[in-house]
Amino acid sequence: MMLCAEVSIYPQKTNNASQVINSAVQTLSQEKVEYKVGSLSTHIDGNDEQVWAGIKKVFNEAQNAGEVSMVVTISNSAH
Q: pLDDT tens across 18-61, in order?
């Protein structure tokens, strides 16, 4: 099954939010997913295992910098 996810990362209590976001999104380059970075969110496309693994990797990298909120919208319809 193919999935699409829209991911937004919101680092908390940091002055380096852009750096945290960029580092987290960069982890997707190691995954077997297609992704496109937008101004407020990143779109991830792939099969269900790839997308879930990508989301987990993004969150894990972001939380290395401290507290973080992540908003994810997932769809199985074509975009």
A: 999 999 999 999 999 999 999 999 999 999 999 999 999 999 99
Distances from the Cα of 4 to the Cα of 17, 27, 45, 66, angstroms: 25, 17, 5, 27
> 71 with 8: CB under 8 angstroms?
yes
Handedness of CA 50, 2, 69, 41 (dihedral sign): positive
Tokens linked to 11 = 């680092």
Query: pTM to 2 decimals?
Result: 0.89
* Distance of alpha carbon 57 from alpha carbon 79, whole angstroms: 23
* Assigned token pair, 38: 């937008």
